[in-house]
Amino acid sequence: MELVIEGLSKTYANGVKALDNVSLRVPKGMYGLLGQNGAGKSTLMRTIATLQDADAGSIRCGDLDVLKDKEAVRRRLGYLPQDFGVYPRISALEMLDHMALLKGLVHAGDRRAMVNAMLERVNLFAHRKKALASFSGGMRQRFGIAQALIGNPQLLIVDEPTAGLDPGERNRFYNLLAEVGENVIVILSTHIVEDVLELCSRMAIIHQGRVLYEGEPEAAVASLAGKVWQRRVPKADLAALEASHRVISSKMVAGQPLVHVYADASPGEGFTPAAPGLEDVFFSRIGGLC
Ligand code: ADP
């Protein structure tokens, strides 16, 4: 099964064009949708999740027309929204049981077995009787995955799932997602380059509602071979350098800016070749440098 998006556009009532002729092919496995805040990721995620309509374009998932066959899509879909909303005082167990009932698992015994298995899977079984309101960020996200996995979805959408997680929680969450991603289509939206690098075999870069790159992260990185140069510069020289060079990024390293520049040959004295990374790909694409 494959998710195929063609020519998708959406302009909000306030005139913001959140999606501008977006076309993507998303196969089984982990797919990263990388973009800054405001790029249009959530709009795309919500549209695929049948929660809002587009102005133009189509989305097909296997044999389904996602924009029309909404009920059928919802039966195949798991969704972890960016903001999961309120965290009530009821326990993880009670909440999952309730959600499983809503998904149509009416037999209490079957439901309990499935809910327990899900809690084990996301490593929350020991905490099942605790109120969701008391969960840490990482526990909430793992609970979010558990609820999204109820009913064995073939399509799983996770919107900015690692924002706010500490490194340990993020690692546990990565492991869980990687395991899930072996059998279904998982679309992961994020502004964190590392998320894509660690998890995704395919990716798209989205910026101002447009797709600037679609393909394998490694291929994107390889396309920059020999074109990234670095140099430490005094803070006072940064503005001049930005005016005269195609600056990909500047990052403070030990209190001094380390600048990455895009160039076919050495851009000048003091520059050394840098091994390109996915962050260079991201910034050079959204900066229109290549
Ligand atoms: P991302 O998820 O990448 O941060 P969004 O899809 O949330 O991006 O937003 C894309 C653009 O659309 C932004 O400029 C945002 O302010 C705007 N936007 C999002 N939702 C709405 C809405 N309901 N009404 C008006 N503008 C919106």
Write the layout of secondary structure elements.
Elements (H helix, E strand, L loop, with lengths): L2 E9 L5 E10 L2 E6 L6 H8 L7 E6 L2 E2 L4 H7 E4 L11 H11 L5 H14 L15 H13 L5 E5 L7 H14 L4 E6 L2 H7 L2 E6 L2 E6 L1 H6 L5 E5 L5 H7 L2 E7 L2 E7 L9 E2 L4 H9 L4
Parallel strand pairs: 3-8, 3-9, 6-7, 7-8
Antiparallel strand pairs: 1-2, 1-4, 4-5, 9-10, 11-13, 11-14, 12-13
Adenosine-5'-diphosphate (ADP) binds next to helix 1.
Structural description of this entry:
With 290 residues, the protein is an alpha/beta fold. Helix content is 33%, strand content 28%. The protein has ten helices and 14 strands. A hairpin with a 2-residue loop joins strand 12 (247-253) and strand 13 (256-262). The mean pLDDT is 93. The structure holds adenosine-5'-diphosphate. Adenosine-5'-diphosphate binds at residues 12, 14, 16, 18, 35, 37-43. Adenosine-5'-diphosphate is lined by residues 12, 14, 16, 18, 35, 37-43.
Low-confidence segments, ≥5 residues, pLDDT <50? none
- The SSE order reads EEEHEEHEHHHEHEHEEHEHEEEH
pLDDT averaged over residues = 93
Helix content: 25-40%
* Distance linking N and C termini: 33 Å
Order of neighbouring strands in the sheet with most strands: 6-7-8-3-9-10
Task: Give the oligomer, counting copies of the same chain as homo and different chains as hetero.
Answer: single chain
The gross shape turns out to be globular
Biggest sheet statistics: 6 strands, mixed
